[in-house]
């Protein structure tokens, strides 16, 4: 079984920093990892992702402030200069190919809450 879990959320003042982590356990090959933010009443929006070849995408509002990195089956999102608009539940997504399968499957964590106060 594949399991994905996030950690690192919390309450921080504007201008502060947090480091989120997402760890996947099981047997698989990592294709891509990403972080998405969701607030009540809205769809999840891409914050950052990284593919197996190292290519990275960032949402415009976080460019220059957030950094995504991968260490084997774990992804990290370093969040600097946090703003109140960054508040939300952050979900990690890991695109993983399990043994004997051609296509990758997306696995979602249950989310970690980030609250940025003004």
Could you characterize the architecture of this molecule?
The protein is mainly β and 118 residues long. 0% of the residues lie in helices and 58% in strands. It contains no helices and eleven strands. The strands form two sheets. Strands 2, 4, 5, 6, 9, 10 and 11 form a seven-stranded mixed sheet that branches. It has a four-stranded antiparallel sheet with strand order 1-3-8-7, with no helix packed on it. The radius of gyration is 14 Å and the shape is elongated.
Large-scale geometry: elongated
Q: Characterize the largest beta sheet: strand count, sense, and whether it forms a barrel.
A: 7 strands, mixed
Question: What are the secondary-structure elements, in order, as H or E?
Answer: EEEEEEEEEEE
Q: What is Rg?
A: 14 Å
- DSSP E strands, number: 11
How many helices does DSSP assign? 0
| Proportion in β-strands | over 45%
Helix percentage: under 10%
Cα end-to-end separation: 41 Å
Low-pLDDT residue intervals, each spanning 5 or more residues: none
Structural class determined from secondary elements: mainly beta
Average pLDDT taken over every residue? 96
């Amino acid at each position: 079984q594949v399991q994905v879990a996030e950690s690192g959320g919390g309450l921080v003042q504007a201008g502060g920093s947090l480091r989120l982590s997402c760890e996947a356990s099981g047997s698989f090959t990592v294709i891509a990892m990403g972080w998405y933010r969701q607030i009540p009443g809205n769809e999840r929006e891409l914050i950052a992702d990284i593919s197996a070849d190292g290519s990275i995408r960032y949402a415009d509002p976080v460019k220059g402030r957030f950094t995504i990195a991968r260490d084997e089956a774990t992804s990290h999102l370093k969040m600097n200069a946090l703003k109140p608009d960054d508040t939300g539940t952050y979900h990690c997504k890991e695109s993983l190919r399990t043994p004997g399968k051609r296509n990758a499957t997306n696995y979602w964590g249950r989310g970690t809450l980030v609250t940025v106060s003004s």
